[in-house]
Amino acid sequence: MSRKVLLIEDEPNIAEAIRFLLTREGWQVETHAEGADALQVIRVASPDLLILDVMLPGKSGMEILRDLRELEDMQGLPVLMLTARGQTRDREMAENAGVSRFMTKPFSNSEMLTAVRDLHAQATQS
Amino acid sequence: MRDTLTGSRIRERRQIAGLRQAELARQVGISASYLNLIEHNRRRIGGKLLVDIASALTVEPSVLTRGIEATLISALREAAADSVGQKAELDGLEEFAGRFPGWAGVLAQMHRRVVSLERTVETLSDRLTHDPHLAASMHEVLSTAAAIRSTAAILADTQEIEPQWRDRFHKNLHQDAERLADSSKSLVTYLDNSDSDGDHRGVPQEDVEAFFDANNHHFNDIEHGGAAADVDLSELDSAAAKSLTQDFLAIYAADARAMPLKDVQAALAEAPLDPLQLASRFSVDVATVLRRLATLPDGYLGRPTGLVVCDASGSILFSKSVPGFAMPRFGEACPLWPLFQALNRPLVPIRQRVAQLGRAAAVFDCYAYAWPQPGSKFDQAPVYRSVMLVRSVEDVAQDAQAVARVGPSCRVCPHDNCSSRREPSILSEGF
């Protein structure tokens, strides 16, 4: 059974590159570019892993993550957060909201792939 | 050549001596307003009056006319006050400056340079964190860089890539390279402009502050009964800045009507500054008094005076700077400021003497007061604003009081053991 990743990112060219890389790794990749309805999209997609941008139209990734973690069945979903803001304060805010891994743009492809592999491995072990 | 700065030196020496303008005027037998004109170099001075003022200030008349030494000594005093872990021999300051004027000049110059650099660090740090235009520009640059890095690495590292994917990535790369060039150019233009002409576009509060600064926070037309709406705002570019300025001018006009200038001047001549007494005398609230005091012309209060107003979220809405007391441009100031304590105790006037850590260990008397905004319906929860008057203290030793230590904002505060710290400082201790 294939693993599914949901990528919520409003930069189409970043989304395309990530989709290409993860597809080659055997992931089924769904993409979405809006923040406002993201929670509903996550519910419907029911992914094994979520990659979430912070600056999204409609609703920030940070808010989406907070709302997500309040849902009982979404507390274990691995979430990799991508952001151009890498300050300590943003990192702490993401950790408090329940992020699994925080990655600052611009990131390397290998860094992103390693994070996805690690998060998936941890989730399947637990 | 006529010396045009004798008045400034008298003012400087008077402040060093810890004398109020009215006291010095009384000692030499002239009015405080005439001394004020002299100190602002609007009246020439010489002869007996110069000798009398010099005598009252216990300096030689030549110090006031030459001035170099006084300026230098003042700068050296500031350097000594700012030093951390090194105590200067203040008793021998004049002797040092007299014997080694060159070295003293170098020291004063270095201190000015340090102050200037620290101010730049604070401004850039503040702007980088909170300037919405800069934050958006940086986000655009970093996001585009992320797309380029990822796409370029795919093209470079993938051995076999389908032609349709390769073509698509080439197209994306081209688009992103164009976008990066545009956003970088825009960012550089923004930084260049904001550094060169003080124009910080996109942040209306800064335009408002610059407008009030350019007018010394005093509007003669309004003082003489003119309407706030008639003030010329043509130099403001954005509609947001004009609207905000209009709002603050309307508050200014209401305060000026409630506390006419000549009546305030009379009250200040009769008694030392006491905002509560003034509130009672003019039948206004304390917030009106504090705002009004900050709009008085130079010389009325005898000491440099600043003002800061925030809303219930702690966001700074308006500020008038005062030398030595750093005010973050976009909010997120030190939570220990009396301004914020007042928000916790609405309608209770707060007075506190504070020393702001960081650039200079200058001491200020702060008067703060939080008052509710007018509601439009019954049973509406009050929303408070807070105002703080910041008045420099000239001679702390003569008027010993408990002094609370506060910072400018956490990012540029060197206090390493503060339970109210919000985030680590970018300054090393003793910067």
Automatic annotation (TrEMBL), chain A:
Keyword Phosphoprotein: yes or no? Answer: yes
Q: Which Pfam families match?
A: Response_reg
What Gene3D superfamilies does the database record attribute to this sequence?
A: 3.40.50.2300
Q: Where are the transmembrane segments?
A: none
- Keywords, ordered alphabetically: DNA-binding, Phosphoprotein, Transcription, Transcription regulation, Two-component regulatory system
Provide one Gene Ontology biological process annotation: phosphorelay signal transduction system
- Tagged with keyword Phosphoprotein: yes
The UniProt GO MF terms for this protein read: DNA binding
Record-given protein name: Two-component system response regulator
InterPro entries given in the database record: Bact_response_regulator (IPR050595), CheY-like_superfamily (IPR011006), Sig_transdc_resp-reg_receiver (IPR001789)
Domain Response regulatory span(s) in chain numbering? 4-120
Carrying 4-aspartylphosphate, the residues are D53
From TrEMBL, chain B:
- Tell me the ranges covered by the HTH cro/C1-type domain, including all copies: 10-64
Q: GO terms for molecular function, please?
A: DNA binding; DNA-binding transcription factor activity
Stored PROSITE patterns = HTH_CROC1 (PS50943)
Q: Which Gene3D superfamilies match?
A: lambda repressor-like DNA-binding domains
**Which CDD domains does this chain map to?**
HTH_XRE (cd00093)
Q: Which GO terms describe its cellular component?
A: cytosol
Alphabetical keyword list: DNA-binding, Transcription, Transcription regulation
User: What InterPro entries does this protein's entry cite?
Assistant: Cro/C1-type_HTH, Lambda_DNA-bd_dom_sf, ScfR_C, TransReg_Diox_bact_type
Q: SUPFAM superfamilies in the record, alphabetically? A: lambda repressor-like DNA-binding domains (SSF47413)
Q: Which Pfam families match?
A: HTH_3 (PF01381), ScfRs (PF09856)
The family database entries (PANTHER family) matched by this protein are listed as: HTH-TYPE TRANSCRIPTIONAL REGULATOR, HTH-TYPE TRANSCRIPTIONAL REGULATOR SUTR
Q: What is the name of this protein?
A: Transcriptional regulator
- Give the organism's phylogenetic lineage: Bacteria, Pseudomonadati, Pseudomonadota, Alphaproteobacteria, Rhodobacterales
